[in-house]
Specification:
The complex is a heterodimer.
Chain A: E1 9-13, E2 18-23, E3 33-38, E4 45-50, E5 55-56, E6 61-64, E7 70-75, E8 84-90, E9 103-108
Parallel strand pairs in A: 1-9
Antiparallel strand pairs in A: 2-7, 3-4, 3-8, 5-6, 6-7, 8-9
Chain B: E1 4-6, E2 10-13, E3 19-25, E4 31-38, E5 42-49, E6 56-57, E7 64-70, E8 73-78, E9 87-94, E10 102-104, E11 108-112
Parallel strand pairs in B: 2-11
Antiparallel strand pairs in B: 1-3, 3-8, 4-5, 4-9, 5-6, 7-8, 9-10, 9-11
Classes of the chains: A mainly beta, B mainly beta.
């Protein structure tokens, strides 16, 4: 079972920040939060990951709440190419990567 | 750049055939994974391997087997293909099991007729 809950879909206007939420209320202390995205007809692409501190890279920012029960992926200036399914993943037992249903993000022109 | 290469982008096979899906990575990664992706079901883990000749079952291993004779290559085998194995198959690799990202291939769309 995926250990995360995400909204099935979201819309965001082009040029605005896209904020994608994820709940992971059963996360344990040594589990990381990962984000991947999958653009149509391609394999998933890694975006960012974190443990407890907020993280930023050239693609996105990851904000993790202090209790670590939820997180938000932020795409600061969304473009049409950011239209994809975004997966929030918590490493579970045996460290397998288990994908949930993800959030389908539509960027509106 | 890490590259994960799957041998075929599209494949059509007949029911009952033995099918081999090949995956090669070029970054000396320890771990390799096979997933299938179906509409409405998302990505589901079939098998993974954390070392040469080592394998672990994922969530849906039935009807599949795997082979990892060399570190860079991870093969998915359908012993006797069936129509319900028509799907998109994705291979991935990662350096370690935690704290590193996984890199995915482009996928193989398998149709069993």
């Amino acid at each position: 079972d995926a250990k995360t809950t995400q909204p099935p879909s979201m819309d965001c206007a082009e040029g605005r920040a896209a904020n994608l939420p994820c709940n992971h209320s059963t996360i344990s202390g040594n589990e990381y939060v990962y984000w991947y995205r999958q653009i149509h007809s391609q394999g998933p692409q890694y975006i960012i990951h974190g443990l407890k501190n907020n993280e930023t890279n050239e693609m996105a920012s990851l904000i993790i709440t202090e209790d670590r029960k939820s997180s938000t992926l932020i795409l600061p200036h969304a473009t049409l190419r950011d239209t994809a399914v975004y997966y929030c993943i918590v490493r579970v037992r045996d460290d397998k990567i288990i994908f949930g249903k993800g959030t389908r993000l539509h960027i509106l022109p | 750049d890490v590259k994960v290469t799957q041998s075929s982008r599209y494949l059509v096979k007949r029911t009952g055939e033995k099918v081999f899906l090949e995956c090669v990575q070029d970054m000396d990664h320890e771990n390799m994974f096979w997933y299938r992706q179906d509409p409405g079901l998302g990505l589901r883990l079939i098998y993974f391997s954390y070392d040469v000749k080592m394998k672990e079952k994922g969530d849906i291993p039935e009807g599949y087997s795997v082979s990892r004779e060399k570190k860079e290559r991870f093969s998915l085998i359908l012993e006797s293909a069936s129509t319900n194995q028509t799907s998109m198959y994705l291979c991935a690799s990662s350096l370690t099991l935690v704290n590193t990202e996984a890199f995915f291939g482009q996928g193989t769309r398998l149709t069993v007729v």
